[in-house]
Amino acid sequence: MNETPRVLLVGAGAVGQVFGKYLQAAGCELSFLVKEKYADEARHGFTLYELGILEKDPEPTTFSGFGVQVSNEEVAARRWDQVWLCVSSTALRAGNWVGELARATGEATWIMLQPALDDREWLLQWIAPERLVSGMIPFISFHAPLKPGERLPRPGTAFWLPPMSRGLFSGPPERLQPVIRTLRAGGYPARPTPDVVRDVAIPSAVLTVFVNGLEAAGWSFERFLQRDSLEHVHRAAREAVQVAASHTKGSASTVLPLLRPVLFKLLLPVAAQLTPFDLETYLKVHFTKVGEQTRSMMRTYVDLGRSAGLPIEHLQAASR
Ligand SMILES: NC(=O)c1ccc[n+]([C@@H]2O[C@H](COP(=O)([O-])OP(=O)(O)OC[C@H]3O[C@@H](n4cnc5c(N)ncnc54)[C@H](OP(=O)(O)O)[C@@H]3O)[C@@H](O)[C@H]2O)c1
Hints:
CATH superfamily of the largest domain: NAD(P)-binding Rossmann-like Domain
Number of strands: 12
Helix content: 40-55%
Number of domains: 2
Strand order of the largest sheet: 5-2-1-6-7-8-11-12
Largest sheet: 8 strands, mixed
Shape: globular
CATH class of the largest domain: Alpha Beta
Mean pLDDT: 95
Structural class: alpha/beta
Bound molecules: NADP nicotinamide-adenine-dinucleotide phosphate
Radius of gyration: 20 Å
Number of helices: 14
CATH architecture of the largest domain: 3-Layer(aba) Sandwich
CATH topology of the largest domain: Rossmann fold
């Protein structure tokens, strides 16, 4: 990789803008690949708000000075060191753009951040394992204002990196190290781990079933925490955890005893207190935006569970 990494971020939404900010701070030569409908907005630059636990009225900062590409032809005309996939799991599979982009970006390292259990396997159709780095997203980002009536100097993207959070990545060392080094140089808390897909599989399974249940409860914490709703979610979450553990050759034995309805009752109000934004609204807005991804992940747990001969009765009932 050259001294100034040439980085292409696919998708300039809530996640792409935040990674872009850190990569630019690290001195990368940055471009976004966006859909034509977002190109003008991207060319004007973005407004970011970094939230802190005590700082509820952050100042806007302008994020600009990057290239904007809208086609694979434009991408193919340049050389790239890193390609970051900042789109949902379902967007990955929409059409055949991933294969085409893989051909247009030569030997670049690809960084995937998608949450579905089978995303890495799916991407390996197009990207050789020697070039693929996997990561997770420890921050929360959203279009602000989040709620009507919230006052901000101007609309933008707000993001919150919880204290002590770590952005885990894994992959072949000669591809992983430059990614970690670059992110750290930009102030991002990147850490290597042997297998991030396995590390996040169980938390992601619980989150997915929780969000699916929250949607069924009309995105209301109060309705979600009622006895019937909690009972269904907790049973489906236990099944999803077992599927996630089996698929990633991990172990669910420490998590399953803790996974009780009371856990949601205890954690949800605490989480709502700690986040420097309205958590209930964020969950509704964000997971409505990526609703198809949640439904697809639920179907994946059912399918993988069935193939592995694991119990899936509650997952199946919860899937829509
Ligand atoms: N935001 C968070 O707090 C957060 C936290 C953890 C994980 N994640 C995960 O991160 C992923 C991205 O989330 P996000 O919040 O950044 O979503 P987002 O704000 O919708 O951003 C994704 C952007 O990529 C665009 N896009 C889709 N396919 C594309 C393609 N082929 N080429 C170029 N652009 C494309 C989308 O366009 P359209 O608008 O037309 O779809 C959208 O503008 C999701 O899997 C999400 O679950 C997000």
